[in-house]
Amino acid sequence: MLDLDFVRAAFPALEGGWAHLDNAGGTAAPRAVIERLQAAAAGSPMLARGGPHRSSREAGESYAAGHAAAAALLGGDPDEVILGTSTTANLDLLARALRPAWSAGDEVIVTDLDHEANIGPWRRLAATGIDVREWRARPESATLELDDLLPLLGPRTRLVAFTHCANVVGAIHEVAAITRAIHDAGALACVDGVALAPHRAVDVRALGADFYAVSLYKIFGPHLGALYGRRELLEGASPPTHDFLAAASPPLRYEPGGAPPELVAAVGGILDYLDALDQHTFALRGDAGEAPRGRIFAAIADHEAALCARLLDGLRASPRVRVVGPASADPERRIALVTFTIDGVPSAEVAAHLADAGVALRSGHFYAPRAIAALGLDPAAGGLVRVSLAHYNSEEEIDRALAALAPLVDRAPRST
Ligand SMILES: Cc1ncc(COP(=O)(O)O)c(C=O)c1O
């Protein structure tokens, strides 16, 4: 059990009275992150790394610490993590970095369930002679199935780009089994972990991911993207960079401009917060002390699953609500991200109505328009309504959202 008073007190942005249920769009930052950001902005000039004087040396140390913190979150080494402005920018850079080693006629496989950040950069390689294949989601389950990938893999497959968990469906994919099949075919796996990483401990090595992308601003951190890449792959690739950095070791070769230094300085605050939460949670259970980060994420998953079950029960009580994805709140199968439509009510109207009730969420395609089409949704519905929870959400917030939905559900025409 999480001590929600302790949790919520750590996040100043939650004090405004809104129920923040748009966490897949971006999470609140805890004081530990905010304080580091402020200290970095106030402490020294925003100088570049590499100089002999104090501020520049500190900037270098701060970059190293930022990479180390992101690596600790992902399970890689610090020199295997690229920090950039976003996952969109990081994956675009990655596609361009890998392309020079490939030949015309080589193949990449993308899905129709991913956020466009993990589709567009690979699809754009078609203009350079790369053949693009599509691994389609099953509309009935809204999931990617390994059986559908296998026939697409071949001797010319270079990379498969797919999502650990989509940002429009809460289902968790079996990444380790999928990466094994991809490696058996001699290809690389690029996994989008953006939606999953705020909710589960990630271990890129156990998952067998060659590349794994997360957005730190959705994991309670500053607005940065962190991209893990296996060391030898990053060393062997050629990102667009300054000529004199072309042979520099990663991550410098991939970060010619450097990510905003005050944001990089704040990354360690995510770990400070998670570690403090771990200590508080397990001390309450009489079980404090050093522990792998996995156990606090297990407690987070339990809390979120209970909220998710409450939400799903409430939504399912109305036959007019159509929930997408897994029916159960089982944390092995899904994260607490629930999307739905209400028959006869445009999704944008649902989101606006909830905003009037102090419930923050959004509707639309969430930059995954191919997924909306793949799921066979009526375009007139205006996409999906998305409730995406974080561990700081409460039962009261779920109930508030359900109560606010009630009049819309009652008004909607009965489905036939
Ligand atoms: C699953 C998923 N992948 C990728 C992205 C893109 O991340 P960023 O905003 O850091 O570019 C998002 C953003 O919403 C996302 O939800």
Overview of this protein structure:
The chain is an alpha/beta fold. It folds into 2 domains: 4-30 and 275-411, Alpha-Beta Complex (Aspartate Aminotransferase, domain 1), CATH 3.90.1150; 33-266, 3-Layer(aba) Sandwich (Aspartate Aminotransferase, domain 2), CATH 3.40.640. The protein is built from 15 helices and 13 strands. The protein has a 7-stranded mixed beta sheet, with helices on both faces. Strand 3 (107-111), helix 5 and strand 4 (131-135) form a beta-alpha-beta unit. It is globular, with a radius of gyration of 22 Å. It starts with a helix and ends in a 5-residue tail after the last helix. Pyridoxal-5'-phosphate binds next to helix 4.
What's the CATH class of the largest domain, please? Alpha Beta
Overall tally of domains: 2
Number of helices: 15
Largest β-sheet summary: 7 strands, mixed
The general outline is: globular
Beta content: 5-15%
- The CATH topology of the largest domain is what? Aspartate Aminotransferase, domain 2
The counted number of beta strands is 13
Q: What structural category characterises the helix and strand content?
A: alpha/beta
Architecture blueprint of SSEs:
Blueprint: H1 4-9, E1 19-20, H2 31-43, H3 54-74, E2 81-84, H4 87-98, E3 107-111, H5 120-123, E4 131-135, H6 146-149, E5 157-163, H7 175-184, E6 188-192, H8 204-207, E7 211-215, E8 225-229, H9 231-236, H10 261-266, H11 268-284, H12 294-316, E9 321-324, E10 337-342, H13 347-356, E11 359-360, E12 362-364, H14 369-374, E13 384-388, H15 395-411
Parallel strand pairs: 1-11, 3-4, 3-5, 5-6, 6-7
Antiparallel strand pairs: 2-8, 7-8, 9-10, 10-13, 12-13
Helix pairs in contact: 2-11, 12-15
